[in-house]
Design a protein that fits this description.
Elements (H helix, E strand, L loop, with lengths): L5 H7 L16 H9 L3 E5 H10 L2 H5 L9 H19 L3 E5 L9 H12 L12
Parallel strand pairs: 1-2
Helix pairs in contact: 3-5
């Protein structure tokens, strides 16, 4: 669920800080990033971390410990999210996990219209939503 013009509003209020550490040839790039996030809270899209943990086969060799979850992928996912959060904390940054929740009933009509526009009205998945 999005908020219209959220990033524009945050940028206008000076709440967005851009950190450029993309130059891998720059030996100071990692230090610049660490100093920029030190003492700050950073919103992290957990769905991205979860998707990476579930789809990257190379991680299977590294994260194969069973943590007692019914689903073996859940153990790997929990460990990866935990270790990534610890890595932020090691550098003085507090990660705040953000995930999408269930859309409120008030938005179901808008979702239905959006899905109808996307699927040409033949999708049917949201046929009764919002009614």
């Amino acid at each position: 669920m999005g908020i219209t013009n959220l990033w524009k509003l945050l940028d206008e209020e000076g709440a967005i800080v851009r950190v450029d550490g993309s130059d891998e040839d720059d030996p100071d790039a990692q230090r610049i990033i660490r100093e920029s996030v030190d003492g700050k809270a950073l919103a992290v899209d957990l769905s991205f971390w979860i998707m990476q943990a579930c789809t990257q086969q190379a991680l299977d060799e590294v994260y194969n410990e069973d943590l007692g979850f019914d689903d073996p992928d859940a153990s790997k996912t929990a460990k990866i999210v935990f270790e990534r959060a610890l890595n932020y904390l090691r550098h003085g940054c507090v990660p705040v996990g953000v995930i999408d929740g269930q859309a409120p009933w008030q938005k179901l009509g808008a979702l239905r219209a959006r899905w109808g526009a996307h699927a040409g009205g033949g999708g049917g998945a949201f046929g009764r939503c919002g009614e």
